[in-house]
Amino acid sequence: MTLKINSERLWSSLMVMAEIGATPKGGCNRQALTDLDKAGRDLFVSWCKEIGCELRVDQMGNLFLRQKGADNNLPPVIIGSHLDSQPTGGRFDGVYGVLAGLEVLRTLNDANQQTLHPIEVVVWTNEEGARFSPAMIGSGVWSGEFSIDYGWQRADKQGATIKQELERIGYLGETPCAPFPIKAAFELHIEQGPILELINKQIGVVKGVQGMRWYDLVIHGQPVHAGPTPMDQRKDPVKAAAQIIAQLYALADEYAPQARATFGDINVTPGSRNTVPETLTLTVDLRNPNQGILQQMDQKFRQISKQVCAACDVDFEILDEWNSPAVEFDKTCIDAVREAVEETGIAYEEMFSGAGHDSVYVSRVAPTSMIFVPCEKGISHNEAENAKPEDIAAGCQVLLGAVLKLAAE
């Protein structure tokens, strides 16, 4: 008999959790380690304990809810995501993956069925990075990317540190924040982009995560009067930036459809209407799932900047802000997801994630893959974020199938 998740129970749990931090426009504001995050954690833990799960809390406040297997000496299959949200976030980002993991355990409990391997549902601390920077700090410390002291010392805008806030809300655990043997790791998530909806597919089988490079491009010109100074006598950083932006958009088109180029913030000084700016600072975000192509994009960005700024007679510097290499997920985990979705007959697409997730760090120490479902118009990190109940259910059913395959071997 094929086990079926209880789709109404899953949807109801999502809607109850969404009431914690609910915003007037139908979204959610449940930022990391706030009183609302504590309330969300408390509710989730209570639901897990109702079905006999054991709780461990590590030094970064990551939660591990364990359902025993037939052989508890075997490494667990883990299902993980996050409960924290953006300040104007949605009802599904992160929390869907956590509560779908709970629904997998509830389904097994209803059927009185035990897997060979234990199963653990994990809540990673501060995935969003909205309150504490950087993002994904809980999984980052756990995977060894950051030290525990670095994680503890991250502070919000008011100066409160992660360690202080973990103590305050009662989630500073004693379990070392370090990896342990894991059979497989899965993360179910809304896509946060429009592709699945556009191609009318219910499931995304995620093969990896785009590599990402963040830069600050700083261009130094000469401030002069806008009226008397001829165009050919100017050292104008805006002119240089405009040409660089245009060429980087063309570069993204050259490497379509996977490449991305984004310029999220532009600032000029002195910021006077009738003065050519002295300095322009532009954020540049380049992404590609192929690490080799991302490196080529990096090199071409530097070449373009050098050539354009020389032609415009301005100086420039490129500050490297963040480098997250492309991630390829584990073949065995990807195959388990693909087989699970094929058994359901649901239409699916193999794809890469354009956003960062805790699975990026988890994949460095454990076999990992992700599952996506569509979200309405691709909107996320927004109070208007929405997903259809039937898609939410389909994703959880595929998750159950994938987990059962690997938890039985």
From TrEMBL:
Q: What keywords appear on the UniProt entry?
A: Hydrolase, Metal-binding, Zinc
Q: Which CDD domains match?
A: M20_bAS (cd03884)
* Keyword match Flavoprotein: no
Amino-acid positions noted as binding Zn(2+) 1 in the UniProt annotation, renumbered to this chain: H82, D93, H189
Q: Which residues bind Zn(2+) 2?
A: D93, E128, H381
Which cofactors, by name?
Answer: Zn(2+)
- Determine if Zinc is one of this entry's keywords: yes
GO molecular function: any one?
Answer: hydrolase activity, acting on carbon-nitrogen (but not peptide) bonds, in linear amidines
| Record-annotated Peptidase M20 dimerisation domain positions | 209-308
Q: Which free-text remark accompanies the cofactor?
A: Binds 2 Zn(2+) ions per subunit.
Classification via NCBIfam families = hydantase, PRK09290.1-3, PRK09290.1-5, PRK12891.1
The UniProt family comment states: Belongs to the peptidase M20 family.
Q: What is this protein called?
A: N-carbamoyl-L-amino acid hydrolase
Q: Which organism does this record belong to?
A: Brumicola pallidula DSM 14239 = ACAM 615
